[in-house]
Design a protein that fits this description.
By secondary structure, the chain is of the alpha+beta class. It is 49% helix and 15% strand. The chain has 5 helices and 4 strands, in the order ββαβαβααα. The strands form 2 sheets. It has a two-stranded antiparallel sheet with strand order 1-2. Strand 1 and strand 2 form a beta hairpin.
Length: 161
């Protein structure tokens, strides 16, 4: 059994589903579940930030999603950087609080527990409040550029041995 979920970062809400397996069809089932409800159905654009899993890897996956939902835009994280997406943090919580220890008698019990946790999470979660502003980011990048330039000057000034 596979648990697939989409995470709305603005509302801190999860839309999940269980499927017999992963793959293109289960991923598109999740996309259909999400994109058929408001506010996503009528939104001008809905960004889907995804890792490079086989069910949503590459241009074909992005084209498939856009063909089914013209307002959907797929954005891939860099390879091996799926941890950058907030849904991966949610999956980490699910692993620790729902799936482990694995004392289930059957898959239906697992699915029920996942749905119950999702409901509880959606009732209590709050959107993450970013404290770093674009101005803060610009300042940080400028400091890094200065530091890098200073380091390069020091390296080129050292005599060869």
């Amino acid at each position: 059994m596979a648990y697939l979920a989409a995470y709305d970062v603005h509302a801190a809400k999860v839309s999940g589903r269980t499927e017999p397996r992963t793959g293109i069809a289960p991923f598109m089932n999740l996309a259909t579940q999400v994109m058929s409800i408001e506010p996503y159905a009528s939104a001008k654009r809905v960004f889907w930030t995804v890792d490079n899993g086989s069910s949503h890897r590459g241009k074909k996956a992005a084209d498939r999603l856009a063909a089914a939902f013209p307002n959907a835009v797929m954005v891939h994280t860099p390879v091996h950087a799926s941890w950058l997406t907030q849904v991966e943090i949610y999956f980490s919580v699910v692993q620790r609080k729902v799936v482990s220890p694995n004392d289930f008698t059957d898959l239906a019990q697992v699915a029920d527990r996942l749905r119950a946790f999702e409901d509880r999470y959606n009732a209590t979660a709050q959107p993450f409040q970013w404290k770093l502003t674009t101005s803060d980011l610009e300042d940080l990048l400028a400091r890094l550029d200065r530091c890098t330039a200073d380091h390069q000057e020091e390296s080129s000034a050292e005599p060869a041995t």
